[in-house]
Amino acid sequence: MQVTANAPTVVQAWVTLVVLALLFVVSLLVPRRHLPFIYFWRVTTFLGMGSSLAFLWFPTLFQVQVSDYFNSLMQINGILLWIMPVLHAALLYIFPLGMLQKLLATLVAVAFVVVSAPFHVGTLVWIVHETNTLVLLPIYLLATFLPPVLAQLGIYSYFVSKASVSERRSVARAARAAARTVAKA
User: Fold this and answer.
1) Measured between alpha carbons, how far is 149 from 78 in angstroms, rounded to an integer?
2) Measuring CA to CA, how many Å separate 137 from each of 10, 55, 108?
3) What residue intervals traverse the membrane (predicted)?
């Protein structure tokens, strides 16, 4: 995959820095009931400002060949296809679920990688191609691995929730019963 991305101009870097600084100041005015959103907003603005400052201090660093980065992302997703069943065997298969549910969970997780990886990487490629390399730092830190990891945690959590509550708590109950027995003696 050959992807080109333009390096920003000095004017673009300064405008981006000023706009993001203003957005950060505005985030201080947002009511506290929106805290999770505010934290994401502030982290994103800091990463964008850091990217702009890095360009202003080291402009040669932004003359990058982004094709290698995105090709590596696709290779990592290919490796993830082989690792996912092993991860599910180690993490999910210890729960008292039927074998069919365990296999279904693994198939859903692998299918998610197969379907989402090209769209995910393609979206990142499109964003970088249509903007400039100032977006590489925020994309790398927020959008490269965080969304797929959160999605896999959601798949994992959904299937773990299918185990009956009494079976999930049986280990804790057995430990408490053993502690009571020791305390009585």
Assistant:
1) 15
2) 17, 11, 31
3) 12-30, 37-58, 78-96, 103-127, 139-159
Provide the mean pLDDT of the chain.
83
Write out the DSSP string of 67-96: HHHHHHHHHHHHHHHHHHHHHHHHHTTTSS
Say what the pLDDT of residue 73 is.
84
Candidates 57, 59, 79, 63; CA nearest to 145 is 79
Residue 38's alpha-carbon distances to 17, 55, 62, 148, in angstroms, are: 19, 26, 29, 22
46-82: pLDDT as tens digits: 989 998 998 899 887 777 777 877 888 888 888 888 8
Q: Is pTM, for the whole model, over 0.85?
A: no
Task: Concatenate the DSSP letters of all residues of 146-164 into one string.
Answer: HHHHHHHHHHHHHHHTTS-
Residue the block writes with tokens 């997703």: 77
Predicted pLDDT at 185:
65
Phi, psi torsion values for 145, nearest 5 degrees = -115, -20
Closest CA to 5 of 125, 183, 91: 125
Residue tagged 């180690």 (tokens) = 90
DSSP one-letter string for 19-81: HHHHHHHHHTTS-GGGHHHHHHHHHHHHHHHHHHHHHHH-GGGG---HHHHHHHHHHHHHHHH
